[in-house]
Amino acid sequence: GGFGSVVVLSAVLALAGGILGLALGRDASKDGTGQSSDWPSKPRFNPFAAVEREVLLPAKLLFCLNLTYPAASGFLVLYAKTIGIENVGWYFVVSGSTSLLARPLLGRLGDKIGYGPSPRSGFVLEIPALLLVPAASGLTLLLCSGVLFALGNAIGSSTTLALAIQRAHPQRRGTAMASFSVAYPLAAGVGAVLMGAVVDIAGYLGMYLM
User: Fold this and answer.
1) What is the pLDDT of residues 80-114, one digit of tens each?
2) How far apart are CA 164 and CA 144, in angstroms?
């Protein structure tokens, strides 16, 4: 259907998400559902309290975990084109399916092995995933890279989210989740600028090694 169809479909899905969000908000507001007994009746807006210190550690971990995401997504497409790999779209099908199927299982694994080993496992899996890209001469190794990166990102993201929820103050969970979630776009933006600069200086091989 072309890029226009993709944009239209994305807008429709976003609208559907907004409608569902409104429905959830109405359900939560009935009889104080979802609020603790000591929830403040009229919370005051404080712009200087926009960042929750309790979730800074998991936010930093999430930032580092996603800092290389541009290298495993947008830059990977460009690199694949430069070396003549066709049908690179399958990379995103395989990595996306891996992430979708693995997150519930890896979330349970993270509960068993703890908050320390889980993020470490995420970084350990992302390292060979990124090193496989410059070693690839065909689609097969790229698909293996996508699987490893999706597994590492899944277990790391699930654990850091659980850690943020655990550390968040019960009366400031919204602010805490906002502070935590900003790590996603921040990592994507900083990572894209950093990776692009390294590609200009040292090429794709230097960027993936970095």
Assistant:
1) 999 999 899 999 999 999 999 988 887 777 778 87
2) 30
Question: How many Cβ atoms are within 10 Å of 36's Cβ, its own excluded?
Answer: 9
* Whole-number Å distance between alpha carbons of 150 and 125: 9
CA 79 to chain centre: 22
Close Cβ partners of 100 (under 8 Å, ≥ 6 residues apart): none
Taking CA atoms, 161 is separated from 21, 116, 153, in Å, by 20, 13, 12
**142 and 76 Cβ atoms separated by less than 8 Å:** yes
102 Cα distance to chain centroid: 14
CA 136, 146, 165, 41 dihedral sign is positive
Residue in this structure with the two tokens 């065909």, named with its chain if needed: 138
Model pTM score:
0.80
Q: What is the average pLDDT across 175-203?
A: 93
